[in-house]
């Protein structure tokens, strides 16, 4: 009985803290004298509510935002984020598909739908949406990197290399792309090049467990077993 009471007290405290956090957030950013806030206000608050798990608040503010900014694509796309937060990947996909019918030349929608494609395992659609995003808005390092990773997973190393290097040229600090380039050379048995790229990634961010895991594999292939074990010891696995 005492354990149950203790649990209820802890749960109540957590809920109280969450409520206090959201109220403090509202007081900090909301102006009660203004019926409709700025676009930036809505973009910040809706995403903050989603992060905090206050989905009803997020929907309320997104609805209000659409009333003021009915054709603003960034505001409209917030509802897709809400659907994602609800775990409704099918609804999210259908929402973006409907938006594409209305805004067929808006790159952001195709990119957003690509993430829903991935959740729904629509592999062909995923690639098509990424390619369309790149066509409509070239030079997006994240999109190019995702295309490169798609081909890397298919072991189409030549196409993977093209897109991953394009991604790197757009953003030379994006460690996810650099890690994937290192992986590309690892799979091509070019371990020296793989080591150069993964060291470049770790020079940017030496707290990335995934980078150490990749380097441990590379060291293993190079016969540097001690260094391989040292890197494996630095890998932090999520519980």
Residue share in helix? over 70%
Order of helices and strands: HHHHHHHHHHHHH
Rg over C-alpha atoms, rounded to the nearest angstrom = 22 Å
How many beta-strand elements? 0
* Strand portion: under 5%
| Low-confidence segments | 1-19
Distance between the termini: 29 Å
Oligomer: single chain
Biggest sheet layout: none
What structural class is derived from the secondary structure elements? mainly alpha
Number of helices: 13
Q: Which whole number gives the mean pLDDT?
A: 88
Choose one word for the global shape. Answer: elongated
Quick summary:
By secondary structure, the chain is an all-alpha fold. The protein contains 13 helices and no strands.
Q: What descriptive keywords fit this protein?
A:
239 residues, mainly alpha, disordered N terminus
Question: How would you summarize the topology of this molecule?
Answer:
Elements: H1 2-29, H2 39-52, H3 55-68, H4 73-85, H5 89-102, H6 107-119, H7 123-136, H8 141-153, H9 157-170, H10 175-187, H11 191-204, H12 209-221, H13 225-232
Helix pairs in contact: 1-2, 2-3, 2-4, 3-4, 4-5, 4-6, 5-6, 6-7, 7-8, 8-9, 8-10, 9-10, 10-11, 10-12, 11-12, 12-13
Descriptive overview:
The protein has 239 residues and is mostly helical. The protein has a domain at 19-86. Helix content is 77%, strand content 0%. It has helices at residues 2-29, 39-52, 55-68, 73-85, 89-102, 107-119, 123-136, 141-153, 157-170, 175-187, 191-204, 209-221, 225-232. The longest helix has 28 residues, at 2-29. The relative contact order is 0.05. Residues 1-19 have low confidence and may be disordered.
